């Protein structure tokens, strides 16, 4: 009996850092109002793949013909043509907008029609042209 009481006092003394949390020791680890065997409610399916959103919509970028450096990201360096949507991963609205702004930039002479400007070759890539969402038709 004496040994048991000394052990509890000694335990509190040795574990002095833990003793300040002694008020928590008697409580259960369950959250209030939740039983241990009830399923956890989740807002959405954890196995569902996240939708790929358009990079311009996601970042809130406003496309303008005055920014040829951004527009050149969506133009092929070999042909000067706009990459299709399955490669750029743009939504329909942004793809049409980029196409219109490229036409405006070419019309006022801010972008080349056939090749990409060499100073834009080292820009960070927004997408990989060799990995489209769906394969090519041919």
What does this entry look like structurally?
With 138 residues, the chain is mostly helical. It has a domain at 55-120: 30s Ribosomal Protein S18 (Irregular), CATH 4.10.640.10. It is built from six helices and no strands. It has helices at 2-14, 16-19, 55-59, 68-71, 85-88, 92-107. The N and C termini lie far apart (87 Å). 9% of the residues are buried. The model has no long low-confidence stretch (mean pLDDT 77).
At a glance:
The chain is mainly α. The chain has a domain at 55-120: Irregular (30s Ribosomal Protein S18), CATH 4.10.640.
Write the layout of secondary structure elements.
Layout: H1 2-14, H2 16-19, H3 55-59, H4 68-71, H5 85-88, H6 92-107
Structure characteristics:
138 residues, mainly alpha, 30s Ribosomal Protein S18, 6 helices, elongated, small ribosomal subunit rRNA binding, structural constituent of ribosome, Ribosomal_bS18, Mitochondrial ribosomal protein S18C, ribosomal protein
